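Example record for the data management plan.
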Amino acid sequence: MLMQHEAVVTIDDQKTVVNIEKFQIPPDQLFNDVYFGNIVSFDVIDNYTFG
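Corresponding structural encoding:
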């Protein structure tokens, strides 16, 4: 759940509360749910990029 001052993430039975005020997210960009995704990972081996 995402609120103006905190995000609550629950995985299995473990609940984590994160203070999000430091991110200064405008209230019109806050939604009810927290979304994780669009993570891109790259590796560089011998000056070649693999992604």
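Summary line stored alongside the record: The first strand starts at residue 6 and ends at 11.
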